[in-house]
User: Which sequence fits this backbone?
């Protein structure tokens, strides 16, 4: 069984456990086989078939248990293989830290110390005691998935809807600033057509919503739309 399959088996098993299914392991195996079969029949990558099976079950569990979306965005910590995803999560308004050079149990300790949910591609971390005891929430993310697909998956897991964007570089909040106050930092061509500027409270970067931002908004909209798509096919 591949690492991706092991990761999904664990995700499925947890969801089935929430439903109070008697033998979640066996049911998870059955869903995995179903996804493998569907991948072969429909010619879609097995990772995508697994993601759809998982998202379909997640939607059903949410409905059955009437799970409500949390208010406000959760605090997140991304391992170093998820730097791209961290930037997108910040654009979606999540307080997201990204750590480099920290691996394994040290990641769990960092998440615990910071009171953050850990997003990681390391499926082994799901088996740790801190996770089973519910002291650290770990969201396993398949590493081979395109970043916007990862974003859809994680936004669905955390029941997120995009909020006020944060600094994509450092994750801190952005504060509006008067154009006059930062005039010398604005590229002359930008100053001609933009009047709204923001300063990052963390790294001090000056930002404005230029053409780059339209691409980001498009990506966020695509990820939010993806929250509806795969589920509909599976129900
Ligand atoms: Zn910043």
Assistant:
């Amino acid at each position: 069984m591949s690492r991706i399959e092991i990761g999904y088996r664990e995700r499925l098993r947890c969801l089935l456990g929430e439903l109070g299914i008697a033998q979640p392991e066996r049911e998870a195996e059955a869903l995995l086989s179903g996804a493998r079969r569907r991948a072969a029949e429909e010619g879609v990558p097995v990772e995508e078939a697994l993601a759809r099976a998982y998202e379909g079950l997640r939607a059903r569990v949410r409905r059955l248990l009437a799970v409500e979306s949390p208010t406000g965005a959760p605090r997140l910590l991304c391992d170093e293989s998820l730097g791209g995803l961290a930037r997108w999560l910040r654009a979606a308004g999540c307080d997201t830290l990204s750590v480099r050079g920290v691996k394994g149990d040290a990641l769990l300790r960092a998440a615990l110390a910071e009171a953050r949910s850990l997003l990681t591609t390391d499926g082994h971390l799901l088996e740790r005691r801190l996770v089973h005891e519910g002291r650290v929430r770990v969201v396993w993310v398949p590493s081979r998935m395109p970043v916007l697909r990862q974003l859809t998956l994680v936004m669905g897991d955390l029941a997120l809807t995009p909020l006020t964007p944060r600094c994509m570089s450092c994750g801190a909040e952005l504060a509006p600033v008067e154009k006059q106050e930062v005039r010398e930092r604005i590229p002359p061509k930008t100053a001609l057509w933009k009047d709204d500027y923001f300063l990052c409270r963390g790294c001090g970067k000056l930002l404005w919503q230029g053409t780059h931002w339209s691409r980001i908004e498009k990506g966020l909209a695509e990820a939010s739309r993806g929250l509806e798509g795969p589920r509909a096919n599976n129900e």
Notes: The beta strands are 75-78, 95-98, 117-120, 138-140, 174-177, 197-200, 206-207.
